[in-house]
Amino acid sequence: QMRLVESGGGLVQAGGSLLLSCVASGRTFSIHDMAWYRQFPGKEREFVATISRTGDSTSYADSVKGRFTISRDIRKKMLFLQMDNLKPEDTAVYYCVAKRPSESDIWGQGTQVIVST
Question: What pLDDT score does 26 carry?
């Protein structure tokens, strides 16, 4: 089964940028739509962005539209989230997700992002 490992989280000042990465193991990366979700302390996980399996279609939550960019490198089996103009309210644990319509989605372990004022 595919395994997802995120990296790139950390502490950044408001207005700054971070690039989150997610590397997938296994041979099925190219057949999955992929997504980023995030979870605020004490809250449910929420959708951030998604990208089609070919990379030609993307969608974003209104809260990040214009500031975050999702991309993927199929050959390297990697998913990215470029986060610009970060705000304190973006502080959360960010998860890489492989979407599987007929089965449970596959989630990474998460990477913490903290945006200071």
Answer: 82
